[in-house]
């Protein structure tokens, strides 16, 4: 992988531009979307850690449910790469392709970290200034 990521691929990691447009692309929309981003990212790596624990304990259904929920909540943030990674992993889990799970999980974990970093950077640049301090 190259350190130089083209701007177009940045959108596939995290992009709330479409969400902002649907909501009116104004100050009110920015406030609402900022809250959505904060709320979606608030659990941090916890869902990934929960899925990892479920996989270690061979609770495949629980792992799949956790990943499905993560995909649903983070997918609204334009995290297309994470959605693709999660779908592949969820499918491998559902079909019990146990040899595919570790590399797919590593990809999902990496993509989720990128989403969290990108979301935090977006919040730092765009969060409404109305008395809120941007602290991570």
Describe the protein in words.
By secondary structure, the chain is mostly helical. It has seven helices and no strands. It has one domain (12-124): Up-down Bundle (Four Helix Bundle (Hemerythrin (Met), subunit A)). Helix content is 71%, strand content 0%.
The CATH C-level class name = Mainly Alpha
Gross morphology is elongated
Secondary structure class reads mainly alpha
How many β-strand stretches? 0
pLDDT < 50 stretches = 1-10, 131-136
Number of structurally distinct domains: 1
Proportion of residues in extended strands: under 5%
Radius of gyration: 16 Å
Q: What name does CATH use for the topology?
A: Four Helix Bundle (Hemerythrin (Met), subunit A)
CATH architecture: Up-down Bundle
Biggest beta-sheet profile = none
What is the CA–CA distance across the termini? 28 Å
Average pLDDT for all residues: 87
Helical coverage, percent range: over 70%
Task: List the secondary-structure elements in sequence, H or E.
Answer: HHHHHHH
Topology, please?
Elements: H1 7-13, H2 17-22, H3 27-41, H4 46-56, H5 60-75, H6 80-94, H7 101-126
Which tags fit this structure?
136 residues; mainly alpha; Four Helix Bundle (Hemerythrin (Met), subunit A); 0% strand; disordered C terminus; two-component regulatory system; Sig_transdc_His_kin_Hpt_dom; HPT_dom_sf; Hpt domain-containing protein; phosphoprotein
């Amino acid at each position: 992988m190259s350190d130089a990521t083209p701007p177009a691929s940045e959108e596939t990691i995290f992009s709330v531009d479409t969400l902002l447009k649907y909501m009116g692309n104004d100050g009110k929309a920015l406030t609402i979307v900022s809250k959505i981003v904060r709320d979606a990212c608030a659990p941090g790596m916890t869902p990934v850690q929960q899925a990892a624990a479920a996989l270690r304990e061979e609770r495949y259904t629980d792992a799949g449910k956790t990943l499905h929920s993560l995909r649903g909540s983070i997918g609204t943030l334009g995290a297309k790469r994470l959605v693709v990674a999660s779908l592949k992993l969820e499918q491998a889990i559902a079909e019990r392709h146990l040899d595919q799970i570790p590399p797919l999980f590593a990809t999902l974990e990496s993509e989720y970290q990128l989403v969290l970093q990108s979301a935090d950077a977006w919040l730092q640049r765009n969060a409404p200034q109305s008395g809120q301090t941007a602290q991570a």
